[in-house]
Recover the amino acids of this structure.
C-alpha cells in the first residue's frame, strides 16, 4: 500500500487560524470543508500558540481556548473522511519567555532580539527549537492521530513580518555551533567572504534538525506526512503561488506549473502541495487576488500532476470575501469526481528544462517560451539532475553548467555565459574559445539572414542584442553573427555598421548529439522585454533538432496545454490565459475551433471531463486528431485507451 501523500488526489484547504478562532463552531467548519469538496484540512496546532490544552510549560497557551479544538477537529474530520494536517510555527515564541530564557532567541549584530506583536524570533540553534519543538510535536502526535504535520517558516529567519531585514543571527548558540563547524567567527553581512561557509553551516544544521524531527515523527506515527518548504527529510514538499505588492510586475503567470513541475520532475518518492494563496499580500490578508488568477493556479496544479491546495486566513464564517469561492469549489469538485482518471499520471516529455538553484529571469523566459509554443517539457532542479530520468532528447540549460554525460542521448542548448567560464569545457563541449568581454551591447544586433536556420524571420534580418558583459567567443561552427554596437544618433548618421567579426552562438557535434551554446541571456531578454524574436531564436533551434512531438495544436499561444499519460489513457489539460494582460486578470476570451493531434496509440474515445461531451476523432499519422468547438476558461480532455493496449505506450510523434 503506497503512502497516502503520494496520491495526486490531495484536495487541501488551509485555514490559517488566529487565536480568536479557538472558539470556532467546529461542525460548521467541517461543513464548509465538505462544501468545498476538500479531503484534507490544515489548521494551527502549536508553537506560536497552542490550539489544544497543552501541558508543556514552554508553549504559549492560547488565551481564547475553551475546549480541545484540535482534538475535536481531528475526530470529526476523520468521521467525515477528511485528513487533518497539524500546523506548527517554531520560528517565534511569546515574549513572556524572553526574560527567563534569553538563549532561545535570535540576536542581531547589536545583540537585540526581534519582537513583532508580542512574538519574539527564536533561533534554529537555541534550546527552544532544538529540544522543545520536538516535545511539542511529540505531545500532539501522542494525543491526536493527525495525518500530517506542517512547519511554517522553518530554518534561519532574518526578516520580520514587515519585511525588515535584521541580519545574520549572532546569538551565542550560533557562535558556538559555527566555531565547532569551521573554527571561524560568524559572518556579519550577506556579502561576507565567508558567506559560502555559513551557507554550508545552515544547510548542515537544518538537515540535522529535520532528521531528528523525521526520526521522532516516524517512530510515533509512520503514516503521518512531514511537510514544509524544503525537500530535505519531508514527504510532502510545500510550495506557494502567492503575490506581493512589492514584487515587480508582470505576474509570473506560470507560478503553479513551475512549482509543481520542478518537484514532479525531480523527486520520485516525494509529492508536492502547491498552495494557491488567496491574499494579495501578507500585509493585506483579508483581500484576495483575482478569482481568475486563483482558478489558473488551481488548474495548473492538477494539469502538472499535483493535487489542490488553497489557503485563507481564519475560518470561513465571517471571512470578508467570498468572490473566489465558487471558482475554488468548481475546481475541487472537478478533481474529486475525476480522481480515477489521474491514476498513474506520468510525463513522457522529450525536453528537459533545468531549473537553476537560483532561478530568475533566464529560466522563466525559456519556461514561458516553451509553454507558449506548446512544447512538452519537464523541469528538474539543478541539484537533482543525477536522480532524474535520462532518456530526454533535448536538455536546455539556462545559464548554468552541469555534467552533460548525465544525458548520453540528449542534444543540448545552453544559454548565458556560464559555460564560457571554464576554457576546457568551452573547448571540449562547444569547440569554442573565449576571446574577451564586451561590457556594453547597446545598439548591437544579431544577424538572422540565414533563413535555412532562422525560419521564423522571413521578413526580418536583425534582432536586438541588449545587455552587459557579453563573453565574445570564437567557435569552429558559429551561428548568429553579431553586428557590433553602431551609431544610433543622430538619425542622419545611423548607417555604416561595423563589420561582423564574431558570432553569438556556436554549434558542435558529438556523434549523433548536437550541442549549442548561446552565451548571452536569451531567456532574460524575452522575459524582460517580451519580443517574440528572442523566443523565436530558441524555437528555431529546437525545431532544427526534429524532436518527436506527442502533441500538435493550433491553439493560441496564451492557451496553456499539458498532455500526460495515465493508467487508462491520456489527459489533455487546456487553460485559457487570454484574460491576463500582465497586471490584471479578466474573464478569458472564448476561443473556437481549436485543432489537436495527439500521440495516443489505441485510443478508444475522446471526451471532456468538464462537460461530459464526446468529441469526434480520427486516427492520422500515428496520432488522434480532433477539434474543440469552443474553449471558454478551461477544459480537461480524456483520451481513453482500448482494453488490451500497452498502457506504457511507445515513443512516437504526430509531426
Amino acid at each position: 500500500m503506497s503512502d497516502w501523500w503520494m496520491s495526486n488526489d490531495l484536495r487541501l484547504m488551509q485555514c490559517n487560524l488566529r487565536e480568536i478562532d479557538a472558539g470556532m463552531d467546529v461542525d460548521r467548519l467541517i461543513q464548509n470543508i465538505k462544501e468545498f469538496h476538500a479531503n484534507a484540512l490544515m489548521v494551527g496546532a502549536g508553537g506560536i500558540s497552542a490550539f489544544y490544552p497543552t501541558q508543556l510549560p514552554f508553549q504559549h497557551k492560547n488565551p481564547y481556548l475553551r475546549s480541545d479544538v484540535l482534538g475535536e477537529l481531528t475526530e470529526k474530520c476523520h468521521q467525515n473522511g477528511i485528513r487533518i494536517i497539524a500546523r506548527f510555527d517554531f520560528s517565534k515564541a511569546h515574549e513572556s519567555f524572553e526574560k527567563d530564557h534569553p538563549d532561545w532567541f535570535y540576536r542581531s549584530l547589536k545583540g537585540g532580539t526581534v519582537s513583532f506583536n508580542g512574538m519574539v524570533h527564536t533561533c534554529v540553534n537555541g534550546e527552544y527549537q532544538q529540544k522543545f519543538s520536538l516535545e511539542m510535536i511529540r505531545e500532539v502526535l501522542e494525543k491526536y492521530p493527525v495525518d500530517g504535520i506542517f512547519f511554517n517558516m522553518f530554518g534561519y529567519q532574518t526578516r520580520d513580518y514587515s519585511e525588515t531585514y535584521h541580519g545574520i543571527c549572532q546569538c551565542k548558540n550560533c557562535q558556538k555551533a559555527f566555531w565547532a563547524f569551521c573554527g571561524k567567527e560568524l559572518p556579519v553581512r550577506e556579502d561576507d567572504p565567508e558567506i559560502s561557509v555559513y551557507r554550508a553551516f545552515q544547510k548542515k544544521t537544518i538537515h540535522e534538525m529535520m532528521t531528528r524531527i523525521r526520526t521522532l515523527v516516524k517512530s510515533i506515527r509512520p503514516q503521518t506526512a512531514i511537510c514544509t518548504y524544503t525537500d530535505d527529510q519531508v514527504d510532502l514538499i510545500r510550495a506557494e503561488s502567492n503575490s506581493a505588492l512589492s514584487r515587480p510586475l508582470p505576474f509570473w503567470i506560470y507560478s503553479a506549473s513551475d512549482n509543481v513541475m520542478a518537484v514532479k520532475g525531480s523527486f520520485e518518492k516525494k509529492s508536492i502541495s502547491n498552495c494557491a494563496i488567496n491574499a494579495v499580500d501578507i500585509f493585506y490578508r483579508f483581500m484576495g487576488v483575482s478569482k481568475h488568477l486563483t482558478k489558473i493556479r488551481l488548474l495548473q496544479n492538477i494539469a502538472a500532476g499535483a493535487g489542490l491546495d488553497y489557503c485563507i486566513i481564519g475560518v470561513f464564517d465571517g471571512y470578508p470575501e467570498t468572490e473566489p469561492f465558487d471558482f475554488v469549489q468548481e475546481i475541487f469538485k472537478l478533481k474529486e469526481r475525476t480522481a480515477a482518471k489521474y491514476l498513474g499520471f506520468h510525463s513522457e516529455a522529450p525536453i528537459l528544462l533545468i531549473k537553476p538553484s537560483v532561478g530568475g529571469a533566464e529560466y522563466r523566459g525559456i519556461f514561458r517560451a516553451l509553454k507558449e509554443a506548446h512544447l512538452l517539457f519537464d523541469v528538474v532542479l539543478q541539484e537533482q539532475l543525477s536522480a532524474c530520468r535520462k532518456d530526454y532528447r533535448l536538455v536546455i540549460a539556462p545559464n548554468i553548467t552541469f555534467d552533460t554525460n548525465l544525458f548520453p542521448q540528449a542534444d543540448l542548448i545552453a544559454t548565458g555565459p556560464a559555460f564560457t567560464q571554464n576554457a576546457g569545457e568551452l573547448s571540449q563541449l562547444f569547440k569554442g574559445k573565449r576571446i574577451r568581454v564586451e561590457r556594453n551591447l547597446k545598439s548591437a544586433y544579431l544577424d538572422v539572414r540565414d533563413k535555412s536556420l532562422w525560419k521564423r524571420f522571413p521578413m526580418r534580418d536583425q534582432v536586438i542584442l541588449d545587455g552587459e558583459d557579453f563573453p565574445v567567443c570564437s567557435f569552429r561552427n558559429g551561428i548568429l553573427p553579431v553586428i557590433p554596437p553602431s551609431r544610433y544618433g543622430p538619425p542622419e548618421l545611423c548607417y555604416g555598421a561595423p563589420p561582423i567579426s564574431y558570432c553569438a552562438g556556436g554549434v558542435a557535434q558529438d556523434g549523433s548529439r548536437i550541442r549549442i551554446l548561446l552565451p548571452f541571456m536569451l531567456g532574460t531578454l524575452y522575459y524582460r522585454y517580451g519580443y517574440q524574436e528572442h523566443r523565436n531564436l530558441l524555437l528555431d533551434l529546437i525545431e532544427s533538432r526534429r524532436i518527436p512531438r506527442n502533441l500538435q495544436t493550433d491553439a493560441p499561444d496564451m492557451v496553456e496545454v499539458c498532455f500526460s499519460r495515465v493508467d487508462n489513457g491520456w489527459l489533455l489539460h487546456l487553460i485559457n490565459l487570454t484574460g491576463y494582460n500582465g497586471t490584471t486578470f479578466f474573464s478569458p476570451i472564448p476561443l473556437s475551433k481549436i485543432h489537436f493531434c495527439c500521440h495516443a496509440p489505441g485510443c478508444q474515445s475522446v471526451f471532456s471531463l468538464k462537460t461530459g461531451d464526446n468529441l469526434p476523432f480520427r486516427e492520422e499519422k500515428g496520432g488522434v486528431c480532433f477539434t474543440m468547438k469552443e474553449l471558454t476558461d478551461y477544459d480537461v480532455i480524456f483520451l481513453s485507451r482500448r482494453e488490451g493496449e500497452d498502457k506504457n505506450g511507445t515513443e512516437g510523434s504526430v509531426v
